[in-house]
Specification:
alpha+beta, 10 helices, five-stranded antiparallel sheet, 311 residues, 33% helix, globular
Length: 311
């Protein structure tokens, strides 16, 4: 097993190297095919864990040319006890926030902006659109006048991926408490990896990850079916609690985060970030070239738009 996984790290380095000379139509799958034995269950796990669950997409969806082009911050991974909602609550202090207001139309022009929602009409000097790329792709918000061609093409070309989680709590742990992650080998597994909750809290819990097509197909399952699959794979006792995410089915997300799809490029991220005139701005992880697909990328894109307006 160690020999296979040691070889996998070398393979990933080779794929990153191959990206520099890749054409716009080449996929990560094209680079994988001659290098790895995809019939090997350990190799299937390595691909599912390092690519599908990391990029929320399958190797045949990902642009080889731009694979690994994202930036990375130094330091260890950090999990926030209490969740990301703490950041939202902090940033929302003193602001007038209206919830439950589905936006149907955004009109913009020389006189200002008008946003039509389920909670009435809001008017102002400017609007910054921060909905997920999946919502823009679904075309459920009408723009008046229509968005420029370059922006519409960028929305179409960029990929919007899916990473779902299966969270299970137990009376007591039955796994090695000192491991951050536990991998599950094989192609058609209910999850590719399990995050050990005892590494960041006191509750015996496992967070299963699944990305790309595997996640999309399994969103059709009930919670009970999904949990039964995971328990059978782990030969685990009954859990005391469960939570299964379905981000593709969420009408306000329609997926998890963006990726550079075949035929796309960072130029599309820049086009998505471009304001339309002075009134209509765009932010969100998909608009941040260096840190797309991350919370810090989304946050930094908001600072970028604030600087643009205030500057």
């Amino acid at each position: 097993a160690e020999a296979v996984l040691g070889g996998w790290l070398k393979t990933m380095d080779e794929i990153y190297d191959a990206a520099a000379d890749a054409g716009p139509g080449e996929t990560v799958a094209d680079a994988l095919a001659p290098r790895v034995d995809l019939a090997d269950p350990l190799m299937q796990w390595a691909v599912a864990s390092s690519i599908n669950a990391e990029y929320a997409a399958d190797p045949d969806e990902l642009s080889l040319r731009w694979f690994g082009s994202e930036g990375q911050l130094g330091g260890p991974d950090v999990i926030l006890p209490g969740g990301y909602v703490q950041l939202v609550d902090h940033l929302a202090r003193g602001l007038n926030v209206t919830l439950g207001a589905d936006v149907t139309r955004i009109s913009y022009g020389d006189a200002g902006v008008r946003v039509d929602t389920a909670q009435g009409v809001f008017e102002g000097d400017r609007v910054i659109v921060t909905v997920p790329l999946g919502v823009l792709k679904a075309d459920v918000i009408a723009f008046d006048p229509p968005l420029p061609d370059a922006k519409r093409q960028a929305i179409e070309r960029l990929g919007f991926g899916l990473l779902d989680k299966v969270v299970l709590t137990f009376d007591k742990s039955f796994w090695p408490n000192d491991r951050d992650m536990i991998g599950i080998s094989g192609r058609d597994q209910p999850v590719s990896d399990l995050v050990n909750g005892l590494r960041f809290g006191d509750t015996p819990l496992l967070v299963g990850l699944r990305g790309g097509t595997n996640a999309r197909l399994r969103e059709a399952q009930s919670d009970e079916e999904t949990v039964a699959e995971v328990l059978a794979t782990l030969r685990a006792p009954q859990p005391t609690g469960m939570l299964v995410t379905r981000w593709a089915a969420d009408p306000y997300a329609r997926g998890s985060y963006s990726f550079i799809a075949v035929g796309s490029s960072p130029e599309d991220q820049r086009a998505l970030a471009e304001p339309v005139g002075q009134r209509l701005g765009f932010a969100g992880e998909a608009t941040h070239e260096e840190f797309s697909a991350t919370v810090h990328g989304a946050y930094l894109s908001g600072l970028r738009e604030a600087d643009r307006i205030l500057g």
